[in-house]
Automatic annotation (TrEMBL):
Pfam families reported in the protein's UniProt record: ABC_tran
Family matches, as PANTHER family: SPERMIDINE/PUTRESCINE IMPORT ATP-BINDING PROTEIN POTA (PTHR42781), SPERMIDINE_PUTRESCINE IMPORT ATP-BINDING PROTEIN POTA (PTHR42781:SF4)
InterPro entries, per database record: AAA+_ATPase (IPR003593), ABC_SmlMolc_Importer (IPR050093), ABC_transporter-like_ATP-bd (IPR003439), ABC_transporter-like_CS (IPR017871), ABC_transpr_FbpC (IPR015853), P-loop_NTPase (IPR027417)
Gene3D superfamilies: P-loop containing nucleotide triphosphate hydrolases
Organism: Zobellia uliginosa
Name of the featured protein: ABC transporter
CDD domains xrefs: ABC_Carb_Solutes_like
Keywords on record: ATP-binding, Cell membrane, Ion transport, Iron, Iron transport, Membrane, Nucleotide-binding, Transport
Keyword Membrane: yes
Lineage of source species: Bacteria, Pseudomonadati, Bacteroidota, Flavobacteriia, Flavobacteriales
Ranges of residues in domain ABC transporter: 3-233
Length: 239
């Protein structure tokens, strides 16, 4: 398995927020994680990304134990809803930022950013500053910046939460396309049931710091805890 999370526990004071978290994920797959506010999703992502240290447990990425590795050395990108672009850099430079840090030659940066802008359907927006872009366009630039450096793992924390329904739907389609094109392995946290089903190759449900990963989408749909059955009954009741 590409990502292996083994018995992670994380507490804040007396509050045990992540309880014995264990799961694994194959390369190039997306695990979507659904859960109510406060159940520990962000804490889980931050622990995997290295922004928080677990009390105990292990994290292996591509066979390497990264539990103690500093966040900037993990090759993991954490992307969240309010993720800010650099306000003084235009769309092109925001995407190029990580590549410049890696000292990639200018010609190659031009090629990679050009390709990314095309994939993100942002041609013609390259020169715009963040405050001249729409919310959905800014989100796409953030996304481009996150994946342009080919991270081993992408952690997405409710990335489309602030977008209107139509834009959100287009971002979901674009995300699917880009994860396939850039061979991305990701954890996708969302409050949205439909989004969880659409985005995940696998689905997990988190409740009170405990994560259940379903081997099959059908099991997820049938489990009364996940809320899918309520949803089906609601829509069925309107017929
Ligand atoms: N730095 C911290 N110090 C103390 N408690 C914290 C800290 N960060 C999170 N918590 C607590 O841990 C619990 C889980 O928070 P977390 O942010 O992981 O939830 P979440 O599932 O991501 O929620 P949401 O969907 O609302 O973002 C909450 O009770 C929160 O108050």
């Amino acid at each position: 398995m590409f990502l292996e999370v083994q018995h992670i526990i994380k507490s804040f004071g007396a509050e045990k927020v992540v309880k014995d978290l264990s799961f694994s994920l194959k390369a190039k797959q997306t695990l979507s994680i659904l859960g109510k506010s406060g159940c520990g999703k962000t804490t889980m992502l931050k622990t995997i990304g290295g922004l928080l240290s677990p009390d105990s447990g292990k994290i292996l990425l591509d066979g390497e134990d990264i539990t103690e590795t500093r966040p900037e050395k993990r090759n993991i990108v954490y992307l969240y809803q309010e993720d800010l672009l650099f306000p003084h850099l235009n769309a092109y430079e925001n995407i190029a930022f990580g590549l410049r840090l890696k000292k990639i030659p200018e010609g190659l940066i031009k090629e990679k950013v050009g390709h990314m802008l095309h994939s993100l359907e942002l041609e013609g927006q390259a020169e715009k500053m963040p405050n001249q872009l729409s919310g959905g366009q800014r989100q796409r630039v953030s996304f481009g910046r996150a994946i342009s450096t080919n991270p081993s793992l992408l952690l997405l924390d409710e990335p489309f939460g602030s977008l209107d329904t139509g834009t959100r739907q287009r971002m979901q389609e674009l995300f699917k396309k880009l994860t396939a094109e850039y061979d991305i392995t990701s954890l996708f946290v969302t409050h949205d049931l439909k989004e969880a089903v659409l985005m995940g190759d696998q689905i997990g449900f988190m409740q009170n710091g405990l994560l259940t990963v379903y081997s099959d989408k059908k099991d997820f749909i049938q489990d009364p805890q996940t809320g899918v059955q309520n949803e089906i009954e609601f829509w069925g009741g309107l017929r």
